[in-house]
Amino acid sequence: MKESLYVETSVVSYYTSKPSRDIIVLAHQEITRQWWPKAIKNFDIFVSEIVVKEASMGDQDAAKRRLDGLKNFRILELTEEVEKIAQVYFEELKLPQRAFGDAVHLAVACVHHMDYLVTWNCTHLANAQIIKKLMDINSSHHLKTSIICTPEELMEVSYDLD
To answer: Potential cystine with 6: which of 27, 50, 107, 109 (Cβ 3.0-4.6 Å)?
Structure first.
């Protein structure tokens, strides 16, 4: 059985966007493009209704590319439990109002028992201090914390033993 992977919006955005002039963003785009086909082969991939909503925003052509990138993935529901836990995360992690969607991504991944949440959002998601607090919150709510990481951290490792 394959491990489950929740793809947050930033990943599909990096995968489908035009090459950036920012060298860091460009590197993340290239890593994502190399990682994407391997991930599709090696994981059961999920998104949520909020990923689809976020991906559909902005420039029409870019939104179409993002939505096309997501079309073959199963969609996890924003259940009552997800909404309740998202509110807990939002309050206890002290996220800014504009980052409520990030709390929802965390809740979707944890409530639906995803093995991984993959993201390029290192401010509110793939952030060691946030993850530490999230683990404490989840412990008190009897929830497993998904492993939160970037595509780079999920790259296949090839060991040359010669």
So the answer is: 109
